[in-house]
Specification:
The protein has 106 residues and is mostly beta strands. It is built from two helices and nine strands; from the N terminus they run αβββαββββββ.
């Protein structure tokens, strides 16, 4: 359990997927360019076994905006997309309406 003040530190935002491609040498990673309003960010995510790069183009996804950048497979990842996974299937968290990239989730 975390308290509410810790939860408030997490900055969730809408990001629009501008481009996506498989990471060379990996069967599970996609390199994704996301519009988050004031900037574009690169996110490296392990969703390639569930999603083809073409399938996520143009989607509004939910990302953790204030996560410390990490190097993954030699690529800088500046955020994390959110997804749920049950026993069989991974599902990206998306918006049900066309909302402005960079919008904060509250």
């Amino acid at each position: 359990m975390i308290d509410f003040n810790d939860f408030k530190k997490v900055d969730l935002r809408v990001g629009k997927v501008l481009s996506a491609e498989k990471v060379e040498g990996s069967d599970k990673l996609l390199k994704i360019e996301v519009d988050v309003g004031e900037e574009r960010r690169q996110i490296v995510s392990g969703i390639a076994k569930s999603y083809n790069a073409e399938d996520i183009l143009g989607k509004n996804i939910i990302i953790v905006y204030n996560l410390e950048p990490k190097m993954i497979f030699g690529l800088e990842s500046k955020g994390m997309l959110l997804a749920g996974k049950d026993e069989e299937e991974l599902s990206l968290l998306t918006t049900d309406k066309n909302i402005t990239p960079g919008t904060k989730i509250s």
